[in-house]
Amino acid sequence: MTPELGVIEGYFGRPWPHEDRKAVLTQLRALGYSWYHYAPKADAYLRRRWREPHPPAAQAVLSDLAEHCRAVGLRFGVGLSPYELYRDFSGMARRAFIDKVRSLDDIGIDELAILFDDTRGDLPDLAAREVEITHAASAETRASRVMMCPTYYSDDRMLDIVFGERPSDYLEELGRRLDPAVGVYWTGEEICAREFSCGHLARVAHALQRKPTLWDNYPVNDGPRMSRFLHLRGFTGRRHAAAAHIAGHAINPALQPHLSLIPAATLVQSYHGGDAYDYGRAFHEAACTLAGERLATMLQEDLYALQDRGIDGLGAELPLLRARYAAVSHPMAEEVVRWLDGAYTVDGWIEAPADD
Asked: Among the four 111, 132, 148, 180, which has the fewest Cβ within 10 Å?
């Protein structure tokens, strides 16, 4: 059984170029993906500056993206992170939120995700506040599906260290209060989960009183550390049996849109193949199909250097690799070159206006 597959563009770092995004979404649909949520952390008009409308040029880009998704058969959604709205959801703040939801409807969204991730959450009534905001969005939007991402979207204790201790029974409170029609994103036992076990997913589903939708943080490679590596290998730790315990499976892609297609294709194969899935073979087949045999062979030969050693471990080999990929005319090879040049490195900056 294969769950419904989606993509949530939810990374830190510079967002994908618009035309590359459209090209990749077309290919993702062909691979079998069903929905796409636009939510790059760098779009400040969906995060810290959420009360402000997108500038006209950015609004036009999103409208074009919505039209493109409809044309290729993908459901299009936007992830809105109303930064710290849970501290005061009344009066002008509530009005501004409703206005924002309506402005997103005007873009032509099919789905709306209200994202509370990566903000402080050490409030005893946090779940109730987040549910109130999510329900307000559900009541106003014309989107056919509404989802939310909790502040504590994983069992990972790193969230408590960074954002404050999670309230007692937070997930259970969300499950009791949240409309059953609202989906919930979940990243697993870790923020970047190495695997999704059926036992864990069943426990989370019980707490939430609904099956979670996976927000899978692979092949994402954002942040100062991860951006120094390319995540290309086929998916592992995603057993097909997990499909019975989830409402859907969305991947958070890498900073390199075209290279993200290779692992994205292997996720499809991991569900289709079941116990016969071979992630090494799946990588090779996906790379050959998407990049051509010559480039696929190069990526396979250099996989250890690109994914495990990373930029800082290449030393004198870096210019040799750069010349090797610069000689190939293909978007994936061009992304390798730009990565080697440091164009994708995230050095501490997190959010910037969408029109930067």
From this structure: 180
Token duo for residue 208: 């939430």
Q: Tell which CATH architecture fits domain 5-286.
A: Alpha-Beta Barrel (3.20)
pLDDT tens figures, 301-351: 999 999 999 999 999 999 999 999 999 999 999 999 999 999 999 986 444
pLDDT single digits (tens) 194-239 = 999 999 999 999 999 999 999 999 999 998 999 999 999 999 999 9
Annotated active-site residue 278? The verdict is no
* Nearest partner of 22 among 78, 80, 66, 79, judged by Cα: 66
Question: Are 124 and 160 a contacting pair, CB within 8 Å?
Answer: no
Catalytic residue among 43, 117, 118, 216: 118
Pairing of strands 248-251, 145-149: unpaired
Distance CA 296, CA 78 (A): 33
Burial status of residue 152 (CB atoms within 10 A of its CB: 0-12, 13-18, 19 or more):
buried
Where does 108-125 have alpha helices with state H?
A: none
Question: Where along the chain do its domains lie?
Answer: 5-286
